[in-house]
Amino acid sequence: MTRKLFELVGTDPARPFSPYCWRIRLALAHKGLEAETVPWRFTQKGAIAPYNSEKVPVLLDGDKAVADSFVIANYLEDAYPDRPSLFGGEGGRAAARFLNSFGDMIVIAGIFPMVVADISQRLDGDDYAYFRKSREARFGGKPLEEVAADRDGRVEGFRKTLEPLRLMLRAQPFVGGAAPNYGDYIMFGGFQWARAVSPFKLLAEDDPVYAWRERMLDAHGGLARKSPGFAV
Amino acid sequence: MTRKLFELVGTDPARPFSPYCWRIRLALAHKGLEAETVPWRFTQKGAIAPYNSEKVPVLLDGDKAVADSFVIANYLEDAYPDRPSLFGGEGGRAAARFLNSFGDMIVIAGIFPMVVADISQRLDGDDYAYFRKSREARFGGKPLEEVAADRDGRVEGFRKTLEPLRLMLRAQPFVGGAAPNYGDYIMFGGFQWARAVSPFKLLAEDDPVYAWRERMLDAHGGLARKSPGFAV
Q1: Helix, coil or strand: residue A60
Q2: Residues 6+ apart with CB under 8 A from B8
Q3: pLDDT (tens digit, 9 = 90+) per residue, B14-48?
Q4: Of B93, B94, B99, which is closest to A98 when you measure between CB atoms?
Q5: What is the pTM of this model?
Q6: How far is A97 from chain B (nearest CA, A)?
Q7: Rounded to an integer, what distance in angstroms lies between the CA atom of residue B95 and that of residue B99?
């Protein structure tokens, strides 16, 4: 069986950076499943249209095509029940919905304006033009460099929104408890995205969230750390 | 076996209001366990000192004494494994740490300044004096009425911090999935606390979080709704 994962890249096909793709890349590692990377760029909508998606990740697993990171995680959990669990039971799966909301709205949306200009630097040609136009529209037409200009002032507020994660990390090393699970991949995806595209320091070195990010970079044989990125 | 739960009250011994005690009152109902209420007031430190706690909830279960809501929830899950699970497995238990951090830092801490003056109105005598003095100290000596004075302006910001909960509620009716579990009791405790002490409207009626709070008020035979409180 051939398993393939469409992963977002820019000019460097070996530098996947989507936070949602990273969630699934780590979920596959958690399950001990191999999957060939299919590098995918913003403007290659046609390549995934047959799978009824306009966004990645898209997973092709034999004759199955699955899109959307949360749907894919659930698919993997159900399709490979004998592999290590991503959720640790039905309560964990239900709670992962909340974790996913927090990861999307607090982690990813919080990081976005701080790294958005750097993302454009990883792109060229049509991708560059598409990204700038669509993302600047989200900020009322503001140039991305202007959006990112106040990031030194903004980062403190972002760090403050991570307090629930920080407080939890005083009691246990991972969202998953003693070892990482999909809850960690949800949160970490955003940080790995930032690391792949931007040298900006999102976390202070004495932050428990920083130490957790280090543990996540080392997880699954250093899968995330081995991927090209900045030293943050 | 006699089971007893020390629950925080003010002038009305039949109006428990601590958010942490409500988490446990609902957890006991979830497990189908009876527990006699022992009304406890802020200044009755001596009554719980034998159980090595200065705060409630404290649960006495036969010859066991357990303090701290999260510790008690874990105790109940382990001591009564054949009753309905509070966490839905080990992944849910691990994720509950994060939910607990969110419930404490976003829900309870967010509500606190808006209802703190109202709490003092539920107290008298030594409790009133203790509460005002200790809580005003937390706000740099500001009178509680002054702390609460800008709540109309503050409430929009509070509602915004609930976005992760709101986004999740678009996908499922409870933190626990199809039915409430301890994740819901964590979040709801803060709202039930506010409802017991304050007429202030924390949520707009068209908010999915409002609808979820209604469902929680009805849970376990309307346990929370039957307890004295304001129509919010």
Answers
A1: strand
A2: B16, B17, B18, B21, B40, B41, B42, B56
A3: 999 999 999 999 999 999 999 999 999 999 999 99
A4: B99
A5: 0.97
A6: 6
A7: 6
